[in-house]
Amino acid sequence: MIRRPAVAGQFYAGTHRECLAEINECLPKGPLSMVLPETIVAGIVPHAGWVFSGDLAAMVFAAIKQVKQEPDTFILFGAAHGCCDMCPVIFPEGAWETPLGQIEIDAELTSQLIALGARPDAQAHRHEHSIEVQVPFIQHLFPKAKLVAAIMPPASNGYECDFGHKVGTLLKTKRINAVCIASTDLTHYGPRYGFAPKGTDSNGIHWAHSTNDMDFINHALHMDAEHLLQSSLEHENACGPAGAAAAIAAAKALGRTQGYLLAHTNSSQVLEDKFRQSSSESVGYAAIVF
User: I need a surface site. Which of 50, 136, 249, 266 has the fewest CB within 10 A?
Assistant: First the structure.
């Protein structure tokens, strides 16, 4: 069973050569200078097109490499842009394909997550981009690593935190060498997104970045998965809050007590910095490790 790329050539480069070149553009040009934990058990990455958020996603994977880790498996908790379910939806077996080739699904660990309550469904992953855009970074930096891919729809019963705790406990108990990565963008602000409580000028975008995004980030850094999830659903400051809550709960079960913010920006700022263009809309991006 092979999951073919759905957004190669759109969210990121579609050929092997161009994909490698774009990865190298996204990766930090030298060692990260900020404080990092001695080992990284989880992270939060954005999932927009690489031109907007690829450097922040790459930063998290580069941080894992920098602390000299070689995970056997990456567990990716993706956002649910098209999947409506009440439990994690996992890709059951086989491999995922990108322009860099195929990455093997960790069938044993996947089956263990299914036993914890995830539902196997390959079809649900067919068009979801939030996991796919992370895979080439893993293939490039960790060529021996396997993949577990789980879409995390928000549920009203707090299931996400419980599932994440069970995953972290499983990894700890069985000493599985895996890193959990949650894929989410932050506040989607402006008329296109139907969310502009502070107006459509620069003041609104500033509020989205400095207040609404930071509410999510602060909950993440304090590893308060329950309030992060509740606040995200109330304030609309994340499109993948369930995955973030699960990753934080897993990290907490693995003994972590704080998160580390590597970077925080938004699409409006990227447009200004890269293209000298302004916008009345914005999407927030953060890179966090635990």
Answer: 50
